[in-house]
Amino acid sequence: MKKWIIGTVLLLIVLAAVMVLRATRLQSPPPLAAAIEPVPLDEDELAQRLAQGLRVATVSDPEGAPDAGPTLLRFHQLLRTLFPNVHAKLQVEQVNNYSLLYTWKGADPSLPPVLLAAHMDVVPIEPGTETQWSHPPFDGVIADGYIWGRGTLDDKSCLMGIMEAVEKLSSEGFEPQRTIYLAFGHDEEIGGKNGATQIAATLQKRGVHLEFTLDEGSAIMQGIIAGIEPPVAAIMAGEKGYITFKLGLKGHGGHSSMPGKDMVVPRLARAITRLDAHPLPPRLTPPVATMLERLAPEMPFAARLMIANRAVFEPLLLQVLSDTPITSALIHTTQAITVFRGGVKDNVLPSEAYALVNYRLLPGDTIERVRQHIVEAIDDDAVEVAPTAEFGNEAPPLSDPSAPQFDVIARSVAQVFPQALISSGIIMATTDNRHYAALRDQAYYFAPFFYRPDDQTRIHGTDERIGVADYANMVRFYRQVITNSSAAR
Ligand SMILES: [Zn+2]
User: Fold this and answer.
1) Three-state SS at 357
2) Do 148 and 463 form a contact (C-beta atoms < 8 A)?
3) Number of domains the chain contains
4) pLDDT of residue 6
5) How remote is the CA of residue 197 from the centroid of ligand 1, in Å?
């Protein structure tokens, strides 16, 4: 055999051995902190207070809920009653009447502040489903080890969990080194325009620059990620943008008995077919790469091999991830053709037709970039391409899943939920967190509740609930975030 053949074969064997070795050596990083003794809390009292918060039906309805304002003010009043220490020691401001901004002044003004966000509004109950609830959604019932009601997961457990932690810490005489803001918007479920946006504007006017923000968006997922046994605390480091484009085509109307060759519906349909055949290219962002690396040790060998040797296998990895809708959404600006309209009567040629295409933007892809993509893909100048005027936003800049600020949250998870793997990623939904994008170094998305398969229908659905013991651990987690982030790093 020629020497060069032997050389090449040997090199390939060595390369394969290195790749296998890297795959077998892939391990979860050691925990950032040891578990701590659970802080003693009266779980029943915590549950009772959360239940009281649920009974104030702070519903955000896109159609405009009756009495929304007075209800929100009643919720403020309840917070004052339930958390006297918070109100004695922190500065509290009503922003744009209904949102709340609490300032817990740090002893060291040179340290950039931290902002813990949550929202006080909830989504309405879908008409016709009221009777399907095991317990009425706004009664604040505690039964079978759970607190039941709208807002128990999204997002009053976060809001009141933060308040409980601050109430307890301030009653113990704790004083933060770093200023801590509690920012509670009142209209997150309808876009946050009057709430978090105004809180952000208030802070910006004061020249505040934040060390990091922590808001809802992800949770401790158990039994959700296929093939991964332990619970996964997914501290997300980005959210997607949102835009819908309208593709419109005008042409000749007329009688259907003499249609001619250039009808608007088939022509627009051809353009849409070309667009559908051209998804935006996949891309691995740092939070998603971190997610894969952190979860890889729990995955089958083939997946470990690809992730451990990403430089070689990235194209294959992207292809595998593209195969299922959930993982595909993590690596793409998704393109969903949702509406196609044209024509009113069976014997009349429509003179116009349009389609709506909804995009969820991967951080880094802009609305303008998507517009160019559409124009190139449809390749028909007659089709007008424009973003719809409704709700749309660019994806806020990504945060760093290996920043020290991430570690503050990860350490808090390790202390309270030692059984959980820590991972990252990006969220598909939008949250109030994006409104603080101009003010912060890093933004993270994580709510410390367990999210199990049967919870998937509960958030924004029927029988939303949280375990009494799980809620107490949320309070313990926020306590750790506050104490861990308080000092200089
Ligand atoms: Zn929410």
Assistant:
1) strand
2) yes
3) 2
4) 83
5) 15
Catalytic residue among 121, 154, 365, 432: 121
Domain that holds residue 143: 43-237+397-486
DSSP result, 243-268? EEEEEEEE---EETTS--S--HHHHH
**Which of 59-68, 150-159, 430-439 is predicted with the least confidence, judged by mean pLDDT?**
59-68
Distance CA 331, CA 189 (A): 25
Same domain membership, residue 405 and residue 441: yes
How far, in Å, CA of 269 to CA of 234, rounded? 40
- Which sign does the torsion angle of CA 225, 286, 27, 11 carry? positive
In order, the DSSP letters of 184-220 are: EES-GGGTSTTTHHHHHHHHHHTT--EEEEEESS--E
Q: Report the side by side order of strands in the sheet with 421-423.
A: 421-423, 232-234, 220-221, 450-451
**Boundary residue ending a domain (363, 387, 411):** 387
The CATH number of whichever domain residue 96 belongs to comes to 3.40.630.10
Count CB-CB contacts under 10 A for residue 329: 17
Is 38 within a domain? no
Q: Is the pLDDT of residue 390 over 80?
A: no
Task: Tell me the CA–centroid distance for residue 216 and ligand 1, in Å.
Answer: 6
Per the annotation, the verdict on 121 as an active-site residue is: yes
The tokens of 302 are what? 């083939």
CA–CA dist 139, 351 (Å, integer): 53
Chain length of the chain: 489
* Whether residue 188 lies in the annotated active site: yes
Instruction: Give 117-159 pLDDT, tens digit per residue.
Output: 999 999 999 999 999 999 999 999 999 999 999 999 999 999 9
Alpha carbons within 13 angstroms on the beta-carbon side of residue 256 total: 9
Q: Give 431 Cα–ligand 1 centroid separation in angstroms.
A: 7
CA distance 278 to 299: 31
Task: Please provide residue 296's backbone torsions phi and psi, each rounded to the nearest 5 degrees.
Answer: -50, -45
Judge whether 154 and 460 are in contact, CB under 8 Å: yes
What was the pLDDT predicted at 7?
Answer: 82
| Active-site choice (167, 187, 188, 293) | 188
Strands (E), 79-171: 91-95, 99-104, 114-119, 141-143, 146-148
Q: Could you say which DSSP state residue 78 is in? A: H
Q: Quick one: 200 and 57 in the same domain?
A: yes
